[in-house]
Amino acid sequence: MDDAEIMGSINDFNEAKQVIPGGVNSPVRAFLSVGGTPRFIKEAQGAYIIDVDGNPYIDFVQSYGPLILGHSHEFVIKEIEHALKKGLSYGAPTESETKLAKEIVLNSEGVDKVRLVNSGTEATMSAIRLGRAFSGRDDIIKFEGCYHGHSDSLLVKSGSGLATFGETSSKGVIADVAKHTLVARYNDIDSVKACIEASKNVGVVIIEPIAGNMGLVPADVGFLQNLRQLCDKHNIVLIIDEVMSGFRASFKGSYPYYKVVGDLYTFGKVIGGGMPLAAFGGRGDIMDLLSPVGGVYQAGTLSGNPIAVTAGLATLSVLKKDLSVYDRLESLANRFATGFSQLAKKYDVPLVTAVRGSMVGFFFNDTSVKDWDSAAKSDTQFYARFHSKMLDKGVNFAPSQFETSFICTAFDNVIIDSVLEKIEACLQELKSE
Ligand SMILES: *Cc1c(COP(=O)(O)O)cnc(C)c1O
């Protein structure tokens, strides 16, 4: 697109940068890894987002996962409108919080109790505190390439060489905190054993069962099952982070794919239906260590916010009414992945794809992708050019090679096929440049 067609976004971005660091409230939105101008959005409907200049885009970002029903779903919006008239926040318990908690407990293996919070970051931070309290041990293990929000303990990447103790991945995180986080390799059980050996004080392991934050890299079934056994053997609390995969990979999250049960779970994204809402939960004996029952402090002024809870309940109720919707979403995801693979072959572009339910990932990469090291071999320059051209053609993919794409219920075969046509044109152009 030439500048004239996105003048509104260009102006808005410049103005935003005066008062918001980088012009955005979450770094990936600034387009730093793909270049170009982030589109400022004025509204969104179903499969489409529309920028301030009026350009529509088929949206594979869907707010990075929450909007499984697509943008502005009629029933969800109607429920929120009703709720709005009853007040925005009470700072007191409501019946609908229990309703949402029940919905999560009933449909999640291994979850006896949950507490609602406002973001995935809060959920994982609190679950880790709880896991440390229960195990009585300070060290935790995370996996390179998995993202669990931005609390200090989790902004850690693997150090150089064989060292398993992490280094901070953000300035401002003190080494004394980071040294309690060990970083293992995804899909590599031996690396977990090495961390446990090196520390001798591991109390918690946290993992994305279907990693969606290094692009889409599902865990191998055997790996996750071995991880469960290893945690049992060493009395380690296993936190399964389903913030992205929960109610998204299937209505029961990752469980149907792995049959692995965590001690604690974290949820977010879909359970808030597009509003700021997340949760952590798990075994009753661990959850009852939480204040006010037990001694682990955790709180929130807006936790269980009635509008957010309404959006979450409305979203889950639509999904629950017809669970075959997940099959439909997965077949759309497969149609996209298969079609894209065929085109990549035709134009001699190395491509790796993965699908889990309504999550679909693609890497411009010629090795199989099973961990961060292999994901990182992807051609990010090619992705940047692809991203920019697709945006020009009216398709919004995430502004980074290392994000998952999301299929929502507003998608259909016609939309997928039109996207595949645009991808073909895009690959043709990229190859001839
Ligand atoms: C998005 C995400 C988070 C963080 O959630 P926020 O609401 O952005 O804080 C944590 N874990 C996983 C797996 C996520 O995908």
UniProtKB/TrEMBL annotation:
Pathway: Porphyrin-containing compound metabolism; protoporphyrin-IX biosynthesis; 5-aminolevulinate from L-glutamyl-tRNA(Glu): step 2/2. It comes from the Bacteria. Transmembrane segments: none annotated. It catalyses: (S)-4-amino-5-oxopentanoate = 5-aminolevulinate. Keywords: Cytoplasm, Isomerase, Porphyrin biosynthesis, Pyridoxal phosphate. GO terms for cellular component: cytoplasm. The keyword Isomerase applies. It is found in: Cytoplasm. Its cofactor is pyridoxal 5'-phosphate. One of its GO terms (molecular function) is glutamate-1-semialdehyde 2,1-aminomutase activity. Its main location: cytoplasm. Its EC number is 5.4.3.8. One of its GO terms (biological process) is protoporphyrinogen IX biosynthetic process. The modification N6-(pyridoxal phosphate)lysine is found at residue 269. PANTHER family: GLUTAMATE-1-SEMIALDEHYDE 2,1-AMINOMUTASE (PTHR43713), GLUTAMATE-1-SEMIALDEHYDE 2,1-AMINOMUTASE 1, CHLOROPLASTIC-RELATED (PTHR43713:SF3). NCBIfam families: hemL, PRK00062.1. Belongs to the class-III pyridoxal-phosphate-dependent aminotransferase family. HemL subfamily. Homodimer. This is Glutamate-1-semialdehyde 2,1-aminomutase. The lineage of its organism: Bacteria, Pseudomonadati, Campylobacterota, Epsilonproteobacteria, Campylobacterales.
